[in-house]
């Protein structure tokens, strides 16, 4: 541990602590803003009208520009930031009215430039606001860049920064920050990418995909050195770094989390003094998704430098990670600012920058000799040249230990893994194209396919009748099975493009129909508030083959009211008619119970179908980011005789996970 002299940088915003443990007295997140004077509102509306016209003119003039789809969001974000702040009363202080006028002016400037085929912001140095259109919901999402004066187009180190918690961080506030503030991390000769992360969700769910989409967009314009990418953040951003470090370990040259939280249960006890003992077992199981402690072994693959203030309550995050890493025989570097509360100590920052400079000078090894990988479900299935294609049982710890142990030999040891792929990209296989490699896996020795002439190597392995065998493909053709992108739980469906399918028919009964309608309306409202997009929506009668091909379908209503649900219900694992509801061998009163579930769509088994659910955490969970985790598994039966609350859509009569072939699992 390293203690350094005291000189403080201002703290970032915190959650409110134990007073936010009252589920019956939940404050709104985001909070309602101030009243905007009528004259100011009129001026902003006029400015928005003018900006909209300028954007439309630019889009028309550049309709044949192949880069238009990637450039237009850079202009549209200024419109969205002002429009949403005004429309949804998210102007949180009157000084933001000047900010809004500045945003409109910048948007008009860019629109005019784009109309003429000019995009000077794409080569601008210093602070640059960028944006992309998300595949999830078609929304415009911002990110910020700090481009060093030294950037000349050569491959350049990239530091990704995850921001701290701020419930008033609207798009308007974020864009203003990214136009005027460099932030805490300003390493020499490096590009820094500041994530918005879908507002205030600790970069979970859609906020997690925000990282991948912002990176993909920025790579189209800047030469980012993918072997020198660092993930960093503080407070809520530190929590984001812990999860990105363990779940995407092979992406980073280094990780540097500061404060935050690294898991849910112990943090809530320490920071919120919250009793979590009564939480259902399926919800505790779902903690594995974002508990970095449970996948601590993956930091074997990523150099990590943790930071905490000595007297910061959120030091708990690094302390518990240190404990779990020690259990994996890994000693963690933990830099501590002495007598420092929830702040980044400047001298600590200097030390972190020094260490990161040393690490980035070496860079990431794309084909490491040794890999150690833990996963709990197939959302996270890849680590360097190892991909896990099947599990014995999801949500049980699965591990792969892999090592190149000879000139043509790989040794693997697995736990709870039934299928995997060895995949080394072109130019990265260390074996001779003349030799037949040997794979030793769980004590069995296999001679497998040779590397190709481009020095790539790919081998698919699967347990067949209990024995490891080389097979032709990662997935068995025609077999319904959980795999990456189709593994459940319900919340997984909202990490890719989805579409709400609204019913146009009459519900089978009024009580269930009214409940589903209210949940559907809430889903759209909360998606906008929490994930900052307007969820795509179509009536059941208007759903096309293209919609089915491109989206996870979220079906609201019942098999009588929703025409799309009527098409698929017979191929789903539930029986739901006017007379009864049957799930996992149990029969429920159809007048007082409703199912929610996720399942491969019978109309397109490569996509999900979801019934009567959006993301599964609710208003109580918005108050602390450690609570913002999946609350329901693959399926649940909602008891409508119990009221919906800020924690659940009603009483949960039963809930559980489907098996690896999407079959019912016997009740325990």
UniProtKB/TrEMBL annotation:
One of its GO terms (molecular function) is serine-type peptidase activity. The keyword Oxidoreductase does not apply. Residues 210-342 form the Peptidase S9 prolyl oligopeptidase catalytic domain. It comes from the Bacteria. Signal peptide: none annotated. SUPFAM superfamilies: alpha/beta-Hydrolases. Pfam families: Peptidase_S9. InterPro entries: AB_hydrolase_fold, Peptidase_S9_cat, Plant_Biomass_Hydrol_Est. One of its GO terms (biological process) is proteolysis. Keywords: Signal. This is Prolyl oligopeptidase family protein.
